[in-house]
Amino acid sequence: MIRTRFAPSPTGYLHIGGARTALFSWAFARHHGGKFVLRIEDTDIARSTPEAVQAILDGMEWLGLDHDEGPFYQMQRMDRYREVIAKMLADGSAYYCYTTPEELEQIREAQRARGEKPRYDGRWRPEPGKVLPTPPAGIQPVIRFKNPQEGTVAWDDMVKGRIEIANGELDDLIIARKDGTPTYNFCVVVDDWDMQITHVIRGDDHVNNTPRQINILKALGAQVPQYAHLSMILGDDGLKLSKRRNSVAVTDYADNGYLPEAVLNYLARLGWSHGDDEVFSMDQFCQWFDLNHITPSAAQFNTEKLKWLNAQYIKAKDDGELAELIRPRLEQRGLTVTAVPALPAVMALHKERVQTLNELADAAAMYYGEVKPNPDLLAQHLIPAAVPALAEITAALKSIPWEEPAIEALIKEMVTKHGLKFPKLAMPLRVLLTGQTHTPSVGAVIALFPRETVLNRLTAVKY
Ligand code: GLU
What we know:
Elements: E1 3-6, H1 16-31, E2 35-40, H2 50-63, E3 69-73, H3 78-91, E4 94-97, H4 101-113, E5 142-145, E6 152-157, E7 161-166, E8 174-176, H5 184-194, E9 199-203, H6 210-219, E10 226-230, E11 233-234, H7 250-255, H8 260-268, H9 282-288, E12 299-300, H10 303-316, H11 319-332, H12 343-350, H13 357-368, H14 375-381, H15 387-397, H16 404-417, H17 422-434, H18 442-448, H19 451-459
Parallel strand pairs: 1-2, 2-3, 9-10, 11-12
Antiparallel strand pairs: 4-5, 5-8, 6-7
GO biological process, one term: glutamyl-tRNA aminoacylation
Subunit structure: Monomer.
Function: Catalyzes the attachment of glutamate to tRNA(Glu) in a two-step reaction: glutamate is first activated by ATP to form Glu-AMP and then transferred to the acceptor end of tRNA(Glu).
């Protein structure tokens, strides 16, 4: 049984890189009919907040990445970590260390002076036949893991290939602080063990933790999971993603009018590929996804491509569903969505031409709110040659059947009758009605509005 987990630290919003890690872990479990576990790594109490936990849960829900188990909270598992530490102290795979921070600094300074790599020197590490110093009075010890000193620790990373580290490079990790609280790497190990995680898929900022975690797992007699370390995501500019320069929170994408299915599809292709396939559903992705086609090099974000994908998903989306996504956006702008025109009909006419939901809301706004055409645009398009045709069409619109073919036919008739080129009449109609020069077919736009509104807008400006 394949078991994966997503283990975010709730210190901010759900990051777009975190979302990709979550997606890959989720899809791998789904592909294999396994389980996907959500674990909140909230032991950094100074930086973890309930708001950040909520942001993660909301982000996962928005994306539709459903978990089978959890969320588990590390802060609720303290007793379990203490229990494992006690067991390790008893079996000798961990030991008390009374070295004070000041002493540690002295040790390191001496090592540096000798040209050695600064590290804990193992003075409290028990060895057969070694006599340990007497514990000093009044000093609370930390607890260290007794890392093997010989040999190497190695794993076949499913993304990066084989990685091997000499154990001699690793010093004895502190697994519990003076006050007894377990440290980060230790909690991860106990959790991955207890939650029977078979595949750890995470960002490659954790590669350095892996050899230590493997050694502790082995000391516990636990099965070592497979590891897949995902390379980082760079911004459009090729630089590390940063809050200042990029949209990094998943909620930014929601606010900026992206559909979750487009974001997921985009993230799926960020560092993973299936031939030339670009647009695919999450069902399809789960069928295809494996860890063998992940690129080890950094993936670069491409906002244009995301927008293109978003446009594909908007076009393909049901008009009624789109209407329900656009309605709150219009209400936020203080607009009331009236029965005429029906919002789904507006969606149908405009969804082909936009890349984001915000652009779709912009397009829909002209049907429900005031339109004030810009005077320059009016001057540019309300040319004297168009005025007689405009006056005549306004009169005729009062009585013709209110449907697109009849309106289209009327515009064509007026164009011919007044010897105009089509745009010479279509453009002033657009500007007067919508305040814009780019719209779908002007006949279709007119047909959506109530007749009253059209007549009012065509006569609101003196020409
Ligand atoms: N909590 C870690 C983070 O948010 C992830 C740890 C892990 O996946 O092992 O970066």
